Amino acid sequence: MTTHRPTGRDEAAAQRPPRGTAFLLAQVGAHAAARFAERISELGLIPAEVGILRMIAARPGRSQRSLAEELGVVPSRIVALVDRLEGKGLLARARNPTDRRNHALQLTAEGGAVMARMRGLAAAHEDQICAALDDAQRAHLSSLLAAIAAQQGLTPGVHPGYQQPPPT
Amino acid sequence: MTTHRPTGRDEAAAQRPPRGTAFLLAQVGAHAAARFAERISELGLIPAEVGILRMIAARPGRSQRSLAEELGVVPSRIVALVDRLEGKGLLARARNPTDRRNHALQLTAEGGAVMARMRGLAAAHEDQICAALDDAQRAHLSSLLAAIAAQQGLTPGVHPGYQQPPPT
DNA sequence: TATTGTTATACTCTATAACTATA
DNA sequence: TATAGTTATAGAGTATAACAATA
Questions:
Q1: I need a labelling partner for A62 at 20 to 30 A (CA). Which of B30, B111, B147, B164 fits?
Q2: Tally of CA atoms within 13 A in the half-sphere of B20 that contains its CB
Q3: What is the CATH number of domain A23-151?
Q4: Pick the CATH number of B26-148 from 3.20.20.70, 1.20.140.10, 3.40.50.720, 1.10.10.10
């Protein structure tokens, strides 16, 4: 615990954390993202690729356009990511017989295997990042973060890479 | 709160948050960073520039090399950032009389004024990001994050942009 | 020789916009 | 005419490495 501090006169100032909570969030979040990127590099993947694979695993057969919309990015960006993943043999663009304009994206067997390995890495990552906290603290942290995420309108499971800021 | 959920038989599975804590950290952290970037764009600044200005304000006269080391980036990257800030009139490269190889970086008056405005924006940002939490919850979140940051060896006040991962 | 800063260069990521094919 | 996907292109950001000035 780091909450006990001398509660003297300058209490208001002492209570104020040296850097704001929002800064800490950004700092620790970026660190977590960087460590995760490091871990999955052993699979030859970058975080965006893992995100795509995860979304397809969750809903097989979805189109590239639907990925672009959910991620809030432009369709041409999906093309590059899907190209690479297809090149690695992790997913396949299947033709949709009823509407041949779009691609029904599917994980290959190898893609499924990679996802299984990825889940192991993610669990280890979680443990490494939260090493300072016991189980109750982790649960508490999760609920606080979930409350912020919900209030801020974040889509569960979607990392806001550095999306285009809404035009001013 | 989002912690109450049907506690039935698959309890172990149900207790496990839908996405891990580390993912939530990265997600909320990236969101906070993006909202901050949006806010300071009204000052014509990007987050990296604010970071440089803040470090110089905290210790005037420091060299570009010391910034590069503390941030964990390559010196040539500092050149570009300092170039832009100097071009905007927010900081000055003063010659160090005792060792003319390095620059003693100083904020200009205008740079100081911009930093004052920035602090106002940061406070508003903090409030907006933490809107879902009351004061006690914010303090608790801060202490949990600070514990993680300390255990992970993060330098206080230094955002790990996306630094070069340590060579494997 | 070592150090500080700079420049030149190449590479990656990403958005924009024009294009193809289907509907 | 509208939609899914693709390609071509350009811009920003960043690391590498060679270089100049100073110690």
A1: B30
A2: 19
A3: 1.10.10.10
A4: 1.10.10.10
Give domain limits for chain B: 26-148
Averaged pLDDT for residues B11-15: 44
Which bases on strand D have an atom closer than 7 Å to a protein beta carbon?
Answer: 3-8, 13-18, 21-23
Nearest CB to A28; choose among B15, B125, B149: B149
Q: CA-to-CA distance for A28 and B150, rounded, in angstroms?
A: 10
- The closest alpha carbon to B19, from B36, B1, B2, belongs to B2
Q: Is the pLDDT of residue B9 over 90?
A: no
Alpha-carbon span A110 to A108, nearest angstrom: 5
The dihedral region occupied by A153, where left means phi > 0, alpha psi between -120 and 50, and beta the remainder, is left
Separation of alpha carbons A107 and A92, rounded Å: 6
H or E stretch covering B2: none
Rounded distance, CA B69 to CA B58, Å? 16
Q: Are the beta carbons of B22 and A143 separated by less than 8 Å?
A: no
Cβ of A100 near strand D (under 7 Å)? The reply is: no
> How many CB atoms lie under 10 A from the CB of residue B93?
16
Distance CA A32, CA A28 (A): 6
